From TrEMBL:
Gene3D superfamilies: FAD/NAD(P)-binding domain (3.50.50.60). It comes from Mortierella hygrophila. GO terms for molecular function: monooxygenase activity. Residues 261-289 are annotated as: Disordered. InterPro entries: FAD/NAD-bd_sf (IPR036188), FAD_mOase_fung (IPR050562). This is FAD-binding domain-containing protein. It comes from the Eukaryota.
Length: 304
């Protein structure tokens, strides 16, 4: 039973808590499991925030102004900067349609002097994060000081996130597709069938997500790390590793892209391989029943 803020209630068989890294649903469930002694120790630990990223999108800028002339160019223009040993920051800008600039600033928290109170704020604005703003205002970009770009960004277009090379969002979308496929196969609705469907979902996703997490962890260190080892790691990868190896890894990562079984499948447009996904048991049964029914009709017609 779910009770909403307007005091209405609904009864359902399954609740999907898709409310982010700081999930209120998960917090409630963990509290209950902890009281019952069923919560694994690993889930009692606080989230490890190795890095924090601030992202934003500016209002339309004047492409006639000399420093913003890239905005009128065809395609996107991107620049990436990594601070030195005394500056645990990395920042990036890239142009998007509408004469706008997207930007982000990534902070390696264990090397930065940032108050915990600032990190707990849900937004990022001068009045709540003045210390961070002072530190990044003079960062050099293709379009002048980063502070000018931040000033051209409305407050509602600035967000605070944990950087993970996009894998958080990508895996969330894949999770939803695979979970929808598993839920679609629940027929009839019963406890055993629900348990089997959720077990199937875990089997399809757990090892893949674990591998993606490790891959993302390495990529974050490669892109944003400032420790001596991380800088050495970045130098070796970017200067010694053949591009063909990196290209093969990209192709391998892109091969896993499941689709909704109950919708028309998107055609394969690229040249890279695609990993076959698990077919829908419900659709298979329904098609088998349709074939048997059609064969039965044909036999009856011949008999008559």
């Amino acid at each position: 039973m779910l009770r909403f803020s307007d005091n209405t209630t609904v009864h359902r068989d399954i609740l999907v808590g898709a409310d982010g890294a700081h999930s209120g649903v998960r917090k409630h469930l963990y509290k209950t499991l902890d009281e019952q002694g069923l919560l694994p120790k690993g889930d009692t630990k606080n989230m490890n925030k190795g890095y924090m990223s601030f992202v934003g999108t500016t209002l339309p800028l004047d492409s006639n102004e000399e420093r913003y002339k890239d905005l009128a160019a065809e395609g996107s223009r991107c620049s990436f900067h990594i601070g030195d040993n005394s500056m645990p920051f990395a920042w990036m800008t890239y142009t998007i349609p509408g004469n706008r600039i997207c930007w982000n600033v990534v902070i390696q928290l264990k090397l930065a002097d940032i108050d915990e109170e600032q990190l707990s704020q849900s937004d990022w604005a001068p009045e709540t994060n003045g210390k961070i703003l002072d530190q990044i205002r003079e960062f050099k970009t293709t379009y002048g000081p980063l502070g000018d770009i931040v000033d051209a960004t409305p407050r509602e277009r600035i967000s605070k996130i944990l950087p993970s090379t996009g894998q958080g969002a990508v895996n969330a979308m894949i999770d939803s597709v695979v979970l929808a496929n598993c839920l679609y196969d629940i027929k009839p609705t019963s406890y055993d069938n629900i348990k089997a469907a959720l077990g199937d979902y875990r089997e399809q996703r757990f090892e893949n997500v674990k591998a993606q997490y490790a891959h993302s962890h390495r990529n974050v260190k490669l892109s944003y790390g400032h420790t001596l080892w991380e800088r050495m790691f970045r130098y070796m990868i970017l200067n010694w590793l053949p591009q063909s190896v990196m290209a093969k890894q990209i192709v391998k990562d892109s091969a896993y892209r499941p689709q909704s079984n109950f919708l028309p499948q998107a055609p394969q447009r690229g040249r890279g391989p695609v990993i076959s996904q698990k077919p829908s048991t419900r659709l298979q049964k329904e098609r088998e029943e349709e074939v048997k029914k059609a064969e039965g009709v044909a036999v009856s017609a011949v008999t008559v």
